Hints:
- The chain crosses the membrane at residues 6-24, 45-69, 75-97, 118-148, 154-176, 183-202, 222-241, 262-289, 301-322, 370-386, 393-414, 420-444, 456-475.
- This protein is mostly helical.
- The chain has 19 helices and no strands.
- It has helices at 3-26, 32-37, 44-55, 58-71, 77-99, 105-113, 121-148, 152-201, 204-209, 224-240, 242-248, 254-285, 297-304, 310-347, 361-385, 389-413, 419-442, 455-474, 480-490.
- The longest helix has 50 residues, at 152-201.
- The termini are far apart.
Amino acid sequence: MDASFINIAIVVVYLLAMLAFGWWGKSRTKNNSDFLVAGRRLGPFLYTGTMAAVVLGGASTVGGVGLGYKFGISGMWLVVAIGAGVLLLSLLFAGTIQKLKIYTVSQMLTLRYGSRATEASGIVMLAYTLMLCATSTGAYATIFVVLFDWERPIAIGVGGAIVLVYSTVGGMWSITLADQVQFIIKTVGIFFLMLPFTLNAAGGFEGIRSRVDESFFQIDGIGVQTIITYFVVYTLGLLIGQDIWQRVFTAKTPNVARWGGATAGIYCILYGVAGALIGMAASVALSGIDIAVKDDVYAEVAQTLLPVGIGGLVLAAAVAAMMSTASGALIAAATVARADVLPFVASWFGRDINTEDSDNPEHDVKANRIWVLALGIIAIVIAIITKDVVAALTIAYDILVGGLLVAILGGLVWKRGTGIAAAASMAVGSVVTLGTMIVLEINAEAPLDGIYANEPIYYGLLASALVYVAVSLLTKPTDPQVMRNWQRRVAGQAAEESPLPTAAR
């Protein structure tokens, strides 16, 4: 049989399996908590797999190999920064976050500060999660274009539809089960197939060393400034992203959130090293092939260096990585839109929507499905019509970190932080970040140079931190009753989950 046919067949079987997991997850979804956070009952194995799957997307898998191909071992730093973010979140904050029994980051801010002014954070979080979903949707379409010879819009539409179906039908349970399979496929594909086969094709480390520049073995070969940027953007971003927090909410106990997440963080770091090594070996083993775009290296290794069938499994691993990120971002976007953004917008029109119809759990699940479906369609359309979704994601990511990081982490670690200070720091940090980006873009030599610059996020963080500390010290401490309620939540004494708004239906 033709090798490409076998590879295609393996990927098709994988895609069909994802749809099957959607229906499997549906049988476990009975209420709001099941749909959004898998009933908050994931044990160590499922939790570790789903956390690793959601953070290791196309940038970590295909992009990580491409960075190794171009820069050598230092190409690992992007994924290492992601792993460091998961480690820090898990060891420092995940236990506390799990005890809160909430659904969104914005709900944490409201609980901690007792101020509705912080609800505007939901808009930034929605933009971030929606753009993350659109970026991942466009990314796995590149695999379908190569594999099936489809036009890009068709590839995006088909791939997006598959993610949309299993996410809509079963919610977080379907996503968790799919993520577990994706985690296993990625582990086998990267560590046990691509790495040994590519190293062998390159003649091992000695073969690589004899044919590449010495900088390929330098740990800072990619540049110290680039490494710092990875840690500022990805490590800090992972500490506060709704898509990551929503996985923390699924943990059964604080210990599962803490140590299962730490295990996932260590796995991510090893994953980054493996990807860089595969890229290094590919630069030697594929030296006779002209590869213009570094992100094409992954697919080239799968189709050129690996035996028939194994290449298909490795391509499925790439699709798995991108789909896990897309589905995680999609349900996060739907949760934020329903729980945070809609009530915030409604309040401007004098409507107060704070209660939940607990007598209608099936109706509640149906409402969540509608939100996932609607936002999933929007993400697919954005991925199809926008040529540079990454620029939009970068803007959202910078504002997320530059604007929201200080208020969120400040609320977790500093009792003196106040709601007025949190709202002010979010506003100032966001404005400074966006303003610096605009100024740099106006004066940039090439389009998008200002958007992709490092300075906006640095200035935004600094301004946000200064305002948060200063305003906190100049304003009255948070209301004692609010702090008592917060301390009860942090101690795991929440009587029930925070509700979602009725009018969101």
